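Hi W., the iron/sulfur cluster complex you wanted:
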Amino acid sequence: MERNAKNLELLGFNLSQLEALAIENGEQAFRGRQLYQWLYEKGICNLEDITVLPKSWRGLLIEQGFTVGCLNEINRSKSIDQTIKLLLSTNDGETIETVGIPSRNRLTICISSQIGCSMGCQFCATGKDGLRRSLRVNEIISQFFAIKEAFGRRPSHVVFMGMGEPLLNIEPVLSAIYCLNKDLGIGQRRITLSTVGVRNTLPKLAEMALKHLGSVQFTLALSLHAPNQNLRESLIPSAKNYPLNILMEDCRHYIDITGRRVSFEYILLGHLNDHNEHAEELADLVGGFQSHVNLIAYNPIDGEEFQRPSFKRIQNFMNILERRGIAVSLRSSRGLDKNAACGQLRRIHL
Ligand code: SF4
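Structure:
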């Protein structure tokens, strides 16, 4: 993607941009390649520590205002299930959370794309404090290195399901996906971008992603959380401006452009959106789509009265969808005891 002339944080620069920077500074192109290796393979956070580069060039870069652009870890909480939540600070004194979820074969990082969120979903802690600002590409990529450092191994999967609405920060998010894929070697199929939907952005996302990434292989996870407009807008205030029929039309359009199926996310709220008729209505809505439904049992947050449904109710909901021929799975809640699970991120220490 185009490099913003004012962008002085190096994380997010690709190889040719770093080579060009070396040449602009009177160095040879291979110096750019060395810088690239130390940024992405070694994960060095401080320009002064890139000792392979001549001291004079490091000094010049620093003088010009360049930094690597890492975030600082200020708190780490480890859950009994080994999930780790990091509280990271930005240069301007803001904080974000990022979560690493380990399993035997994978390490998934749940990345934040904004500081706070303006969408105000009722069941989500992040939306309670509103939006502070969107993250820059280096601030997104830096979360990868922070989790790598916390676990002592590379994340294998990335989900944009942390703080913020990625479609309100499309350019940096797509640049970050490009960097994760091309510079950090995460296959696009191991990357998921989750959204509650922002009007007029889904076809735009598809077109921009095709243009910038060449092909769109990452998964789009559309957070539905309700099978009809009334219920949906009571849970997701921003849905008032984005009727469900138009949202589903945009999903079809997205599938047409990208050729990728969409995953629909559905948080089950006990006795609210988990009745039999909701399952039937959801099957009507997504039936015929190239899709998958991912159910998530509500993870409690302070100040909200929603209930986590019983296992029996969850099972019943799943059975109805399966009977209707819908591909469905249940996402396990990880990091619950440290408020690190879906919808619980709120920039607090535990
Ligand atoms: S669920 Fe996502 S979009 Fe909704 S408030 Fe939380 S972070 Fe924002």
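The CA atoms of residues 65 and 258 lie 39 Å apart.

W.
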